[in-house]
Design goal:
- The chain has 292 residues and is of the alpha/beta class.
- The protein has one domain: Aldolase class I (TIM Barrel).
- The protein has an 8-stranded parallel beta barrel, surrounded by 7 helices.
- The longest helix has 18 residues.
- The chain is globular, with a radius of gyration of 18 Å.
Length: 292
Amino acid sequence: METFRLWTALVTPMNDYAEIDYDSLELLLKEQEAAGNGVLVLGSTGEGLNLTNDEKREIVRFTKSLDLVVPLMAGLGGFNLEQQLDFIRFCESQDVDAFLMVTPLYAKPGLEGQYIWFRSLMNETGKPCMIYNVPSRTGIKMNPEVPARLYKEFPNYMGIKEASGSIDDFKAFRDAAPHAKLYCGDDNLIKEFVEEGAVGHVSVASNAWPRQTRKYVDLAIEGEVAGLFEKWVQCADLFFDAPSPTPVKSLLFHKGWINSDQVRLPLSKLDLSEQTEEALIEADRQVNEWFE
């Protein structure tokens, strides 16, 4: 698979009863396709752990049925190995293009536990696999030796999505495996991570700003820093003023791209302040003004 500069960690739109809204999902997928962005479903932004196994399978089937011209990545999450292997086998049957594999949740494994976990998952598929370090969600940092070992062992190792929020941690992964690909996983650190060697980005912001985020990432990778939107970080930070994806769903609803801003428990719309909602609308205006 060619290196896609931008993958969108897609939200899972729902109606007011927290049921999946497939009409809105199709619209969002078509927006990403038009922008030329790879699509990641069932990640943390997609509320993957809040969905039933049947719902996750149906989202994969539905997305594949649209025959998008951009690749589809499916997120894995949890800490039950057999459930993850079973879902990989299902996704293989649907010809999903790639997988995002996160450090096991809750269990806080050490180096060998992390390595054997990823090795067990990657042994189940020949599809490209991106591993994912996000200690704020998993409770444990990935050991830099883990991707370094996987890179040497698996030809389908795609790279690491680094979302620790730390430049020093990013450098540690880079230095442990200098030839392996790294992807930025924090919308507010695109410029800095690209300067340190990131080849692409996995984004929340691109749900609402698919073409705009693509332009920002392209400019950063091509070294055109003078063209970067100076208020990008300020705007992107708003998507994390409340537990994600609550803020980005709010903006998508305001834009008319989804029919409801509903999230599923344990998330709640009530955790998003009116001030943040207003700030998101203003940020949308500013980003569009820069883009145009």
